[in-house]
Design brief:
248 residues; alpha/beta; 7-stranded mixed sheet; 5 helices; 14 strands; 30% strand
Length: 248
């Protein structure tokens, strides 16, 4: 199983070349995308033909995690005759939000097959994706992605305000790809995001095999964030960037 980071940014950033959350997971002929944030569509085209995606899983309905579904929809609709289609699993209401953005009922359905996401398992080709609710918005999910029902797996946090929500997804040795929005600092009350201390404690408690941190808010020191995770977790820690790739 191969992970390619197309985007690792938060909702806004001053880091040149940064793009919104988007993580491509491939196993053999199967290709699945976890989130699809701003600016990640061009990076996707550099990796695969977008219409060959087997599915996209959207963790929650904040635009920095799904907005590049708009250029994908245009691409599928206008580059092919007839239009091609890609499956999208998302919290309830995604289609209506995209339709409203263009004031065009049916806009989404012309090229995207949107299904409501829920807790449980979805089999897509050679991958099994487990979704579990986490604390963030009214309906937000973390994901566990495993090839052929064997480990290690990739566990992706989406945006998450309580690290313990992710623990049931993690098995010893799994790779944890997790947001660390507030770096080594304190998470403001009500922010519903994680910091490095929470990530390190979660990884240590669950015996994760590796920690990949992402979604770091601007103004937070990268080295200090990594060090704060390592103070609590003894395994490898890496801050991922667009273009990072990893065999799992």
């Amino acid at each position: 199983m191969k992970l390619t980071v197309l985007g690792a940014g938060p909702a806004y950033t001053d880091r040149p070349g940064a793009t919104g959350a988007a993580y491509l997971v491939r196993q053999g002929e199967t290709a699945v995308l976890l989130d699809f944030g701003q600016g990640s569509f061009p990076r996707l085209t550099g990796e695969i033909e977008p219409s060959t995606l087997d599915a996209i899983f959207v963790s929650h309905l904040h635009p920095d995690h799904f907005i590049d579904l708009v250029p994908l929809r245009h691409y599928l609709r206008y580059e092919f005759a007839p239009a091609r289609r890609v499956r999208v699993f998302a919290p309830a209401g995604l289609g209506e939000r995209l339709d409203a953005l263009h004031a065009e009922p049916g806009f989404t359905g012309e090229a995207l097959e949107v299904s409501a996401l829920g807790e449980g398992h979805v089999r897509v080709g050679g991958l099994t994706i487990e979704a579990r609710l986490v604390t963030h918005t009214e309906e937000s999910y973390g994901f566990r992605v495993v090839a052929d029902d064997t480990g290690p797996a990739l566990v992706y946090s989406g945006d998450c305000g309580r690290a313990s929500d992710l623990a049931p997804l993690i098995r010893p040795g799994d790779v944890l790809l997790t947001e660390v929005s507030f770096g080594s600092g304190v998470v403001p009350a009500g922010a519903q995001h994680l910091n490095a201390q929470a990530v390190g404690e979660l990884a240590a408690a669950t015996n994760a095999g590796q920690v990949l941190i992402t979604h770091l808010q601007m103004g937070n020191d990268e080295a200090a964030t990594i060090e704060a995770v390592k103070e609590r977790y003894r395994g490898p820690v890496e801050l991922v960037r667009p273009g990072s790739s990893l065999a799992i």
